[in-house]
Amino acid sequence: MLNVPQSICLLRLSALGDVTHVLPLIRTLRQAWPGVALTWVIGKGEQKLLEGLPGVEFLVYDKKTGLAGMRMLRRELQGRRFDALLQMQVAARANLLSAFLPATRRIGYDRSRSKDLHGLFINERIPDRPGIHVLDAIGSFCEPLGLKQTEVIWDLPVPDAAREWARAQWPDNGVPTLAISPCSSHALRNWPPERYAAVADHAAGRGWRVVLLGGRSQLERDTSDAILAAMQAPALDLVGKDTLKQLPALLGRADLLMTPDSGPMHIANAMGTRVLGLHAASNPRRSGPYSDLRFCVDRYDDAARKYLGKPASELKWGAKIEHDGVMDLVTVEDGIAAFERYVDACR
What we know:
By secondary structure, the chain is α/β, with parallel strands linked by helices. The protein has 13 helices and twelve strands. The protein has helices at residues 16-32, 44-50, 66-76, 92-98, 134-139, 160-167, 193-205, 218-230, 246-253, 263-270, 284-287, 300-308, 332-345, and strands spanning 7-11, 37-42, 56-60, 82-87, 103-108, 124-125, 177-180, 209-212, 236-237, 256-260, 274-279, 297-298.
């Protein structure tokens, strides 16, 4: 007989894209056990994105607080013990933080995905399945509990006010919209601005609206300014103008998002928007838009051969190829061809 847990703690601090991968798992747990108490230890910005998620208690850990913040979290949990901890992050900080979370069952990653002494902080592991997407690996955390994730539904919480704000940014006049979110948090995954501009001009020439999206960092502002300067066609510049709650609403309004491997890629996918993903530094089959890879550019194997001297099939699953110039392998022609694949699919 299945031993139903009364309380489960999920530990996944970051990043924005990765926390969206946890949402289908939460849905699986909730559907099987409507009464289970779910507590999620999460990063500060990530909690802002997911604020309003029903049935989940968020405990925010600010990475800047270090060990003092971990001790504070332990004091906050004094007198509580979880039936299970799902330790879904293998970075050293997350591993150490998990030691401050009292739990009977401590479920972590399989050995092939473990690093930074992850195995010392857990007493059970998920099944070892090579060659699967990050979302599916996270989804398998329910399996030691006796469940199986059989469907993937996100239900990303987006307030009505955020949707209203997004609707006000451009008219619903039948013009298709290409959104561009040009920056990843990993600079070596970013594509040259002039190449974004070339694809954007191609889309504009096909009658599309072009919208630039991004956060408030100087890199995002400078990159977007360079794209705008290189474009011949006009574009709507919304860089730095939205909040984390408004971003999903904006992405949900776009027909297609062009972006490198980034948080907005996965947020857009969770909102049902198709993604023109630009991949050379990372493998789209592992970390690309989960629902549909048809409109992605995949130069990962080319990067493996050029920078590592071997085909991608010989690399460890999940290996990054973040070398200077790696994204130059993705050409303007690649981007335009991917855009045209989307146009053809919509006919």
